[in-house]
Amino acid sequence: MPRRHRIIPLVPVLAALLAAGCGTAAAPGSADIDLTYADENGEQQQLSIQAEATVCTDDITPDRRRLATEDGTVAALVDPLGEAMVQVKIDDELTFQSTTAGRGDRNGFRLEDVEGIVVRIPLSGMQKKISEGARITGTLDCPA
Asked: 34, 65, 70: which is closest to 143 by C-alpha?
């Protein structure tokens, strides 16, 4: 007796899998950050950072999640209560460090006029405060 094989039409099965989200690439995340600070001469400076890829991970410390742009220019640690402490690399020596917390979770962080300081960290490692009252606003979204 000959065997009969049942052929399942693959097109509808593949279409259903794609519609359910299988086989699609994950979104890389993004960041849009605006920073305002006074430089060493007291002049207001503005810096805008847009990133098309972010990295969000749980393996930095047992109770904190690290959220960052792919190149590390913007980075934050989010604690279990959802408070995000942010650091922004302005150039090779200048760094913004938040002194108040933004809000963050597993999906990213939101900053609304978060206050901080700008410090100079030269190769010698001796940190020098450049300005207080620096402000940062923006978002970072983790990869989907």
From this structure: 70
Residues composing the chain: 144
C-alpha 78/C-alpha 144 separation (Å) is 18
Amino acid of residue 7: I
- Whole-structure pTM value: 0.77
What's the number of CA atoms in the CB half-sphere (13 Å) around residue 100? 13
- Over residues 79-113, the pLDDT tens digits come to 989 999 999 999 999 999 999 999 999 899 999 99
Percent of the chain with pLDDT over 70: 81
**φ/ψ bin of 70: left (φ > 0), alpha (ψ from -120 to 50), beta (otherwise):** alpha
